[in-house]
Fold:
Amino acid sequence: MNIKLSRRTAGLSQSATMAVSARAKEMIRDGINVINLSAGEPDFPTAGYVKDAGIEAISGNLTRYTPAGGLEELRTLIAEKLKRENDLEFSSGEIVVTAGAKQAVFNSAFCLFDENDEVLIPSPYWVSYPDIINLAGAKPKIVQGNRQRDFKIGVDDLRQHRTSRTRGLILNSPSNPSGAVYSAEELREIGLFCAEQGLWVISDDIYEKIIYENSAFVSIASVCPEIVDKTIVVNGLSKSLSMTGWRIGYSACCLELAKAMVRLQSHTTSCVSSISQYAAISALSSLDERAEVQQQMVSEFDKRRLYLIEHLIDRCGLSVVNPKGAFYLFFDISPYFGKEADGMEVSCSLSMCKYMLEKGNVALVPGVAFGEDHYVRLSYAASIENIQEGTTRIINSLQKLQ
Structure:
């Protein structure tokens, strides 16, 4: 059946991470032993005290619609969290609870940008940013990150790409896919440039709690007060508390924009699941339990990160961005381009990932989905046993290409 789709959806691509993960799960259902290192989803269970709060909400019949912007108690807790942990002042009315951080980015784009507006997106970028901007009718303008600076961008890069139509910047630190973390000094320089140019900043802070070595997370609005009124802080509980399926994200921004987002949300999702919101209230109000859960998760992620660097990256001599945050390795596979094994030639990140999946039974994500075709992304949000086996399979598959 030939359906004429709208212009907005006709050019919309499927999320590469979701597509790879779906193919891996399909192979697993067919009885193939696939090691899935593609999904950006913590493998830890949601903490017991959070699950209990969700169950209590169901038992207590707290299953009705909530206000479109979220329960007042939850919005207040989020505002308190931002003040306590990020030195950011927002009222509860400036908080909008969303169905994951992705919806917060979506809301921001739809409320701020129009046709012919340009939005700067540093590369490598999270796969959904360009499509979200396209859906909003604006134009994503890719700013190539500097490989010698772990793909981070600076003011000079922004200045080269800014035009009279540029209205915003999406910034993600720690970064998916590279794991790069911007310093306070780097963020302040970028913030001052955006303030000078009158640009909006969508600051995606979803990986703020997953930090390694001597790095420290800083939100751009906290180190550059000049940009606070034009910054949308985006965050959520998916990554930091292993609550991906609960779909709890949020945005914090000026009151006028927050009200516009609530109006938009009232006509799209209506509100986030009440059960998830009550679970989030428990998650955010139980400070000691939350800190303990996050510390344990980060400690395990760091062990996996170090294992991969030693046993995969160093052993194979791969060029990699040293991840200081998040839970991904983003490494250069271009030295294998033009090589062939088992009847498959590797010529790009997509063909490399197809080769790894079909012949090595390891699921990775092609870098082209993030704007960097010479790289692939490996997620170490998987058990150490799967990481060890996956590492062996990747090494064997690469050796066949030599």
User: Anything to note?
Assistant: DSSP finds 14 helices and 15 strands in the chain. The longest helix spans residues 287-316. Residues 7-45+290-400 form a domain with the Aspartate Aminotransferase, domain 1 fold (CATH 3.90.1150.10). The chain has a mean pLDDT of 95.
